Each structure stands twice: as structure tokens, then as C-alpha cells.
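Section 5.1 Outputs to date
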Amino acid sequence: MNLLRTGLAIGAAALLALHGTAMGAASTRRTPRPSRQAARTLLAPQADAILDNVVDRLWDRGDWYWHEGRYEERVALDRLIIRMEPRFIEPYGTAGWLLESLGRDQEALALYRQAVAHVPERWETHQDLGMFYYQHKDYPAAAEEFRRATEQPGPPVYVWKMLAHAYEHSGQLDKAEAAWVTAGRLAPNDPAVSVNLSRVRALLSSPAKGG
């Protein structure tokens, strides 16, 4: 662990000790996430244990800020957690969502891009960035991120659905069809998949598809 991360962990631990009584009653313990455990780095055992404990406690405390409606402080807390453990992906998503809700889209976009840069092997980081682009109607950029999400381990079927929608909106109907076909293999009983696949195939066979 470098000196900055050590200092952050020690400072955060001190703050938790000062405010633990006031905030602890409202905190909801979360089950450790797989990404949280996978994000742990190879540190000296004592330093690793301190950092792990502090990050876990800070993450738990975030619920209190959320339920109290203190969103600015929750975003600040998530940013602190990210600085201490940049491969823990959940704080990027919660802070990004809150920043969007607060009308600070560019800050949210920067955070989603930071998540992709630090943890490119997780489908969730690409999905979050892709959804931002999709909601802002940048469909080619959205399709690229959804495509990258599908190349990572374990993406659920809805990632393929979003990829198909993004391809269609960006005029790439052949790729949209292929994405729906894959979604159909993953979820053969999903009626939305068959409906959308039939619709896209109808568009592909239409004489006006190129217009």
C-alpha cells in the first residue's frame, strides 16, 4: 500500500471512530460483494486488514447518508472509497447514479469512464457506461460499451438486449439481429426476445431498410 492509501485509511478510521455512535444505529450491514473481495490487493497483512476493515465500514455507513437524503455526502464517501480501493466497482455505480440524479452528468460520465479504466474486465463497468450513453442517445458509443460488456465473464441476458437496442438505434440492423439471436439462446422462453428478433428481421427484409 502506498502512503496516500495508508493515510486515507487511517484518517477514515479516525472519522469512523468519532462518528460511529451517531451513525451506527442507522447503518445497514451489507453482505460482502464478490467484487469487494476480488478487489483486495497483495499488501502487507496488517495494512491489508486495516484497509479492508475501513473500506467495509465506510461502505456500510453509506446507507445512512442515502436514507437521510444526504446525497452530496454519499457521493463524497463513495469517492473516498474509490480512492482507497479503485477496483471495488459498486461505489462508481452509486455515486454515478446520484450525480446523474443531481444533474451533474459530466461528473457521472467521468466516474463511469474511470470505472472502465480501472476495472475493464467486469461487465458491470461497461454496462453502466453504456447505459449513460444510451440514455443520452449516443447509440454508437452505447453499442460499443455493451459489446465490450458481453466480452467479459458472466454478463446477463439484458446486456445482450441493450446491445441489440443500441445497434438498432445506430442503424446496425444486422448486428442487432445477431445480438437478439444470442439473447434468445440465453433466454429461450423470454417473449420479448422473439418479438424483437422478428421485428428486426422484418426491418432487414424491407426494401426501405437502406433508406
